[in-house]
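Support reply, case 0932

Customer input (verbatim):
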Amino acid sequence: MEDLSKNICSEDTSVMADRVGDVQSAYRAEMRKEEVWNNIENRISKSKSNVPHISLRQKLLRVAAVLIPTIVVATALLTFGPSSSESTYATTHQTDTINLPDGSIAILAVGSSINYSQNWRGRYATLSGTALFKVKKDSQHPFYVNASDVDIKVLGTTFRVENRAEQAHVRTCVEEGKVSVRVGKQKVILTRGQEATWTGKTLVAKNTNLNGGLSVGVGCMNFKDVSLRLVVEEVAMKYHKQVSDIKFLTEPDSIRITTMFDNEPIDDVLHEIAVHSGKKIELNKGCLTISD
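Our regenerated output:
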């Protein structure tokens, strides 16, 4: 009996020891879990502390850094394009009437040329030589003419521009409407019956004489020691309704002429040129012939 009691006590002690071991194992497992979670929380806390604080100003600067290049590119596209394809018109031996894409008209003198383009901001013509412009009105798209150093801006008007290297000046004459003529910081506003001349140094504006009988007859033509060729070309431009072609049967560049015309009939003008040049000048069915 005593031995049986000892065996029972021994078994109870063994069971208790096992239970205590199980509890201790469970406790250590829980401790390890808690330690793992603590490590994770510490890492999260450290990662948050390493993230720099971004102020509102810094956020706005970052947004601006993204938007500004986009705005610059968009502005450049709007400023410089899209534009229509450029068109070039030129004359050689006769005056020509050009119908520009916007509906404006340019009457080109002999030996003149225009390069024309347009976009959403306006209409642009670069002139070499002499031309009469009849600009279609469009307040949303101003018409600009560049002649060497001279920039001319109009909305809708009729005006003439002379830009010839031989004359060493650029002249703008207004028949109808109003134009702005600018060279660098110099600027004048011209209305009907006024003209401006750029001499290379100064921009001079003055009133001129309008007869009204000629659509191209804006003011007087003043020639000072210029070639017979240039005089004839300018007359053909001024009287373009009567002159459609020019034929030089003699050498016209060596003959120099100094004279002035103020809207006289074309017959009187041609007679005056013949007297000054010593050449025979005939107008027959629109063809102006100069011969010995």
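We compared this against your earlier run and they match. Two observations from our side: The two ends are 166 Å apart (CA to CA). DSSP finds four helices and 18 strands in the chain. Please reopen the case if you see a mismatch on your end.
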